[in-house]
Specification:
Elements: E1 2-6, H1 11-23, E2 28-33, E3 53-57, H2 63-72, E4 77-80, H3 87-92, H4 94-113, E5 119-125, H5 151-170, E6 174-179, E7 181-183, H6 192-201, E8 206-209, E9 215-220, H7 221-234, E10 240-243, E11 248-250, H8 251-261, E12 269-272, H9 287-292, H10 300-313, H11 315-323, H12 326-333
Helix pairs in contact: 1-7, 2-4, 4-5, 6-8, 10-11
The protein binds nicotinamide-adenine-dinucleotide (NAD) and thymidine-5'-diphosphate.
Amino acid sequence: MNILVTGGAGFIGGNFVQFMVDKYPNYNIYNLDLLTYAGDLTKHKHIENKGNYQFIRADITDRETIISLFEQKQFDYVVHFAAESHVDRSITDPGIFVKTNVVGTQVILDASKAINLTKFIHVSTDEVYGELDFDPTTFFTEETPLQPNSPYSASKASSDLLVRAYHETYGLPMNITRCSNNYGPYHFPEKLIPLTISRVLNNEKVPVYGDGKNIRDWLHVIDHCAAIDLVLHKGLNGEVYNVGGHNERTNLEVVKTIIQALGKSDNLIEFVKDRLGHDKRYAIDPTRLEKLGWKPTYTFETGIAQTIQWYLDNKEWWEQIISGEYQNYFEKQYSIEE
Ligand code: NAD
Ligand code: TYD
């Protein structure tokens, strides 16, 4: 079985690639990634020589390269993670989000519909549903209308609609997964949890937007990988699955938990200007996925403890990323396929 993973040098895609390479020695896992600022191959050093893993450096918006790649390889599954993923960056530069997330997804869809694919998995986000208010009894279900608020979530919602349309129009077999905020190993240090851990360890101030009362529903990346694996093998064709649930925390609670675990003082917290259009709350109802057989293995408490320990044990990885030196490794090892 040949599985193409797009964005497999990023945070979630990277964890998924490792999860699949380890779990399925008989599957061939192809990791296609452009290696933007968010892509990092050092995380795959321990699998790069395995027989069931191959890296392909390519841009999902490069139609010619992608179409010809799909003609050469017999992909059975596509798991599509590649995207611009940071809300803050989408506020300062929305254009690249439309290019990568919308146009790039359309290119991958065109290439996928041209071959005899078993399943296309589109990895999306709960942010396409917009925001919830602070009423703790309300949740996003798969029927919640799409109401994205940021350029990032609008670009993801657009890609979701394209995937749906390719299913309805061309019969492309697909599932869409919409997960809550992931955290865990290899999370890029510009997102809240790794940013807090790395800054607290360096005794630097942690910027908290607004009053810190916005709520996110945290999902450990390994539980997310297991969910995608399940959907890949058992998901009903055409179905959307929400992933996450019941690990809601305010941003301030998250930051304080990390500060406390590292034995530092809350004085490191610095309240800064709020994000434009900052969504108040995300919360997932995962009933449909649970009925398919998914159950998370981490609570927020066990997951954040594991994550903090991972950042303590892997300082080299994130210090390299922060300093930007990691790019030299990629340039020495690989070049863009023309
Ligand atoms: P990430 O930013 O860490 O990784 C994205 C990867 O895509 C990088 O390796 C990057 O090099 C690659 N990429 C970007 N543009 C590309 C292009 N044009 N061609 C090929 N590769 C390209 O993102 P992530 O946090 O791992 O998120 C993965 C997916 O999951 C995204 O689609 C995102 O929308 C979705 N998601 C993420 C979260 C989260 O909490 N991180 C939550 C919900 C959904
Ligand atoms: P982030 O990790 O960027 O994920 P998302 O915006 O996709 O939810 O942010 C998580 C929450 O943390 C969000 O409410 C914004 C907030 N935040 C801060 O308060 N300070 C920061 O420096 C960052 C990056 C995020």
